Amino acid sequence: MSHPSFVVLHITAHKGFGGGTQIANTILQSGEVAQRVLYLEKERSRIDSANQVFYKDVFQVISNCKHLLSNYDVIVLHSHGRIAGFYSRLLRLVFLGRVKVVHTFHGIGSFNPVKRYLSCVIESILSLLTKTVTFNSESEKRAFGVFPLFCGSKVVANGVMTDKLVQHQRRTSITEIGFAATMAFPKMHRELIELVALFNSRYPERALTLVFCGDGAQRQFLDALGADLLGENYLSLGQVNDMRAFFTRIDIYFHLSLYESFGLALAEAMGCGIPSIGVKGTDLIQSGENGWLVGADDIEGQVKLILQLLESPDKAALIGLEGRKTVLAKYSSQQMTNNYIRLYREITQSD
Questions:
Q1: How many whole angstroms separate alpha carbon 296 and alpha carbon 304?
Q2: Percent over 70 (pLDDT), the chain
Q3: Which terminus of the chain has fewer Cβ atoms in its 10 Å neighbourhood, N or C?
Q4: What's residue 5's pLDDT?
Q5: Helix or strand (DSSP H, E) at 102
Q6: Does residue 252 lie within any of the structural domains?
Q7: Bridge partners, 252 (sequence order)
Q8: Between 242 and 327, the higher pLDDT residue
Q9: Is the pLDDT reported for residue 75 higher than 60?
Q10: Is residue 15 located within the same domain as residue 138?
Q11: Does any domain span residue 1?
Q12: Whether 114 and 194 share a structural domain
């Protein structure tokens, strides 16, 4: 694919993690498009490079972006998430429409009903200053509901780095269940701890070890709860640089979340061939074919499903392989990169 003759400036949150960061870094590593990235950090302590800025420092954010726009042939501003989206539209006003804004939603359905309504109203208004809005899944688009968009819209699914996936080895027995996510709402770490504790109390001869991967505001509380309810059957790895170490050890992946716009860690687990469970609403899983879907609050259904997987490890492994095929066929990082570059080309050539 030939390089576009323009530069894309991504505005996203958190240099170390997050859906927008993953998209920006993936496109950057592909070498398919010239780009710059500005990270909006919520903690000043995280700032250690020139491409990071405190998200509340409006003057500094605008100043950094002005520098980038003045020194590079930036034509496309691609913002990720609410805060970045505010800045990208503001910059379009400042530069009098010189730049074209692509805005990607991340997790709009995870808000409570009032906050979701207000966010959708605001995003509807801001779409007047936007060239194209992208959703990273059909479920994310559905979460936006009936609110009008005064710009183009498109679903561009996230993608996983398939070359970094490790092939899951079929196990004769299932002993570890894992979950990788930021330890904060809307992820349901507490409920998963309580679920495994309930399962282990009912089936002590099949007791599972719960392995968490990730960090966040609730980690101290969750680690204390896990140690209290599960004892030695609880392991918290914290933030892991190489996810392969996590995926190699677990037997089942359970992505328990009230809402998920895409579910990158779930896609990675499926891509490894790990038997994976998600919550109803995700686009990744066709229940019983390439994984399993459960209700977020269906405790008995969750216990029953886990027991079924433990009793039929061979069947679980086969469905895990179907999950791997799905991810490799539909959700690779190269496919995502190609889709975004195609979009960038379309919007720069439309006028």
A1: 14
A2: 97
A3: C
A4: 61
A5: strand 100-104
A6: yes
A7: 177
A8: 327
A9: yes
A10: yes
A11: no
A12: no
Whole-structure pTM value: 0.87
Distances (CA, A) of 267 to 31, 214, 247, 342: 23, 16, 12, 23
Q: How far apart are the first and last CA of the chain?
A: 22
Judge residue 112's burial from the number of C-beta atoms within 10 Å of its C-beta, 0-12 exposed, 13-18 middle, 19 or more buried. exposed
What is residue 37's three-state secondary structure? strand
Q: Positive or negative, the Cα torsion across 10, 14, 16, 21?
A: negative
**DSSP-assigned letters across all residues of 303-315:** HHHHHHHHH-HHH
What integer best gives the mean pLDDT of the chain?
Answer: 90
More confident residue, 116 or 100: 100
Query: Residue 110 has what pLDDT?
Result: 63
User: Does residue 2 form part of some domain?
Assistant: no
The domain containing residue 134 runs over which residues? 7-159+332-348
The reply to whether 173 and 194 lie within a common domain is yes
The pLDDT tens digits for 300-332 are: 999 999 999 999 999 999 999 999 999 999 999
Closest by Cα among 233, 341, 320 to 274: 320
Which token pair is 25?
């870094």
Q: Give 1's pLDDT tier (boundaries 50, 70, 90).
A: very low
Q: Residue 80 and residue 19: Cα distance in Å, rounded?
A: 8
**Helix residue ranges per DSSP H, 176-295:** 189-202, 219-230, 244-249, 264-271
- At 168-181, the pLDDT tens digits run 887 778 899 999 99
For residue 174, what are its two tokens?
A: 């299932």
For residues 160 and 328, is the Cβ–Cβ distance under 8 A? no
Contacts of 172 (CB under 8 A, 6+ apart): 313
Taking residues 41-47, what's their average pLDDT? 86
Average pLDDT in the 222-235 region? 98
Closest by CA position to 256, among listed 297, 286, 288: 297
Compute the distance between CA of residue 99 and CA of residue 220 in angstroms, rounded to an integer: 43
- How many angstroms from the chain centroid is the CA of residue 344? 21
Distances (CA, A) of 212 to 104, 243, 253, 342: 28, 12, 10, 37
Angle between helix 333-348 and helix 19-30 axes, rounded to 10 deg: 80
Cβ within 8 Å of residue 273, ≥6 positions away: 167, 168, 317, 320, 321, 323, 324
